[in-house]
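Notes from hallway chat w/ T.B., transcribed later so I don't forget. T.B. wanted the structure written out for a chain they're using in a teaching module, and asked if we could keep both sequence and structure tokens in one place. Agreed to drop them here.
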Amino acid sequence: MFLKNLLKDDRGGQIFLIVLLAVSIIVPLLNMFVPEGNIFYLSTYTVTLLGKYLTYALLAIAVDLVWGILGILTLGHGAFFALGGYAMGMYLMRQIGDRGVYGDPLLPDFMVFLDWKKLPWFWQGFDHFWFAAIIIMLVPGLLAYIFGWLTFRSRVTGVYLSIITQALTYALMLAFFRNELGFGGNNGLTDFKDIIGFSLQTDGARVSLFLASAIALAAGYLSCRAIVKSKLGRVAIAVRDGEDRLRFIGYRVENVKLWIFTFSAILAGIAGALYVPQVAIINPGEFSPLVSIEIVVWVAIGGRSTLYGAVIGAILVNLSKTYFTGAFPEVWLYALGGLFVFSTMYLPRGVTGLFERKQVQHA
């Protein structure tokens, strides 16, 4: 009953969840139960690639909640994604133990190489999954809350806010490049072995991560949909469409912005945490402002303010990226720019806007 009310008048969301459910059933079956030589066999590499796309889709939904619903163009959500990824990476590094290159049971290889004598205080506790899970949500959420509290109460808006969010992720990128910070420097964290006791190299672990990403994506979509349908969501849309009017009639606009921005950052952190064990590395490059800009392009191409449009954009762009970076690596950035320009000029409401237009014409 709750889901029925939540998805009422959201035909696109209903279709998306049905497709996601079907994919979540079919993909593991084709990988685990179809013989490798069969035409329908799905390789573990493909399963991992699809799982990565699902984490990108969750990240895109987080950005659409802030940009499409609340009206804040954020160019810094890559930072929250990377922070969640680093928290998961720290847990995975602690699981290596004495199986590292240098055989130290406590210190990760890069710390042994840099001649560190003891584990830094902020690495303590990461040998437990429950602790890492808390940090994955706490650190991005706390950073977003502090950042939002300072900027929203100062009434920084528009392009100035976008520039500040970009400066935030750039500053973090520069900090994480430093070896003395204790996060692996330029090389980042890699060479992961296990997650909650299971080897990351097995097909079963890859399928499990794919399913975890699908569940997180569905839960993220439904939670964002619940926000949009709530009073908070209606006020957020009003903030997007007429912030000064809301202030005039007595709403604390900064509180609405703060809580949605913080929740969105937590979603981004969860996406990053699911991304890292599937790609087997996290480094400061994930903090790059270009990553955050690319996320915005996903949402714009898919269609902002629909949530499911962000999913379509993320998957469509990353499928194209996988093809172009393999076949024509020097062309990819031009192709991405061309997609964005084409979407802006001819599909201002993204791919979902095209479908909505056809439905109106048939009606």
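Follow-up for T.B.: The longest strand covers residues 189-190. Might be a good example for the class.
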